[in-house]
Amino acid sequence: MLLGIHHAAIICSNYEVSKSFYTHTLGLKILAEHYRAERGSWKLDLVLPDGGQLELFSFPNPPKRASYPEACGLRHLAFKVADIEQYQGYLVKHEVKTEAIRIDDYTGKRFLFFSDPDGLPIELYEI
User: Do the strands 41-47 and 53-58 form a parallel or antiparallel pair, or are they unpaired?
Assistant: First the structure.
């Protein structure tokens, strides 16, 4: 039986920029960091407050995302937050542009979207 999501993996175009975004701007903690010389690739393991993880990879010349956000495959990454307005203010203070807060038609919960340095859509969902 599935017990939950262990991690999500992200490939970035600029390792240092994305590492700074996920660790400094979003505040995720580094679990492990490895350079894989045979691949010319960094692998950064980040831990979320609930124990889930993000893997951040760099590869030489990765292809661009097919479209935004409607390509087949992963659509977006979503994080849960307790106070969406507070977190939106935090992002704006850190010069991250966000979309307006919206209301989920089915659950009545508030959510918003912003993007990482490579344009990966990220959602905040208020619990």
Answer: antiparallel
| Beta strands at 77-81 and 121-126: parallel, antiparallel or unpaired | parallel
What single letter denotes the amino acid at residue 84?
I
Question: Into which CATH architecture does domain 75-127 fall?
Answer: Roll (3.10)
Q: Which helix (H) or strand (E) segment is 127 a member of?
A: none
CATH architecture of the region 1-62: Roll (3.10)
Report yes or no: 86 and 74 within 8 Å, Cβ to Cβ: no
Task: Please say if the pLDDT value at position 2 is more than 70.
Answer: no
Tokens representing residue 6 in the block: 């262990």
Cα 41 from chain centroid?
Answer: 19
Tell me: pLDDT of 24 over 90: yes
| Torsions phi, psi for 55 (to 5 deg) | -110, 125
Proportion of the chain above pLDDT 70, given as a percent: 94
**Average pLDDT over every residue of 40-62:** 94
CA distance 69 to 58: 21
Question: What pLDDT band is residue 64 in, cutting at 50, 70 and 90?
Answer: confident
